[in-house]
Amino acid sequence: xxxxxxxxxxxxxxxxxxxxxxxxxxxxxxxxxxxxxxxxxxxxxxxxxxxxxxxxxxxxxxxxxxxxxxxxxxxxxxxxxxxxxxxxxxxxxxxxxxxxxxxxxxxxxxxxxxxxxxxxxxxxxxxxxxxxxxxxxxxxxxxxxxxxxxxxxxxxxxxxxxxxxxxxxxxxxxxxxxxxxxxxxxxxxxxxxxxxxxxxxxxxxxxxxxxxxxxxxxxxxxxxxxxxxxxxxxxx
Length: 236
Prior knowledge:
The chain is α/β, with parallel strands linked by helices. It has helices at residues 31-40, 60-69, 91-102, 108-126, 139-146, 159-170, 176-186, 194-209; strands at residues 3-9, 12-17, 24-28, 43-46, 134-136, 216-218, 233-235. The strands form two sheets. The chain has a five-stranded mixed beta sheet with strand order 3-2-1-4-5. Strands 6-7 form a two-stranded antiparallel sheet. The radius of gyration is 17 Å and the shape is globular. The model has no long low-confidence stretch (mean pLDDT 96).
């Protein structure tokens, strides 16, 4: 089985596989390419919200994830927009819809990732088989697991924080150092940033682990949204 980790980046998506037989990395610059990789791979961990509320402003999984990560990392967990907002043409209209339903506007951070949420959602709506192999995860939760269950003191935006995360992955995969260097050399920072690379790698690592380990979720018994998508953060 082929596994993949995917993280959003400025140019689209950075996809990485740390599988022994077909390790590699790819820049996916269109939603069509993203869909093709969804079809090609058997297990995918992706850092994008899957499953959306229609009335509540905060998903239970996001609230619980903030508690697990601790106060220093609450800002790394965005509240995704409610489903009614996905097709809003402007931020102003999206915020108006959200405010009318939830009493709160859409944050600018969430609005910026709404196209990514919409793209993934469309594929999972069109092909329900993808729901059994494309799983929402969160890099900081996975790094915490690699770090013995302890949050990393330095943020990934710092040199020490980035190096610590890369070192944790290097302990688990022989490809990590080369991939980090090669992706930096091949793509500009305005295409793929350094933190995008380590995030995609840790997602890839846990996607590979999930073939032989039980997949767990936050919360343990996740609810589904109106379309049947689980609202959960996956890890092993």
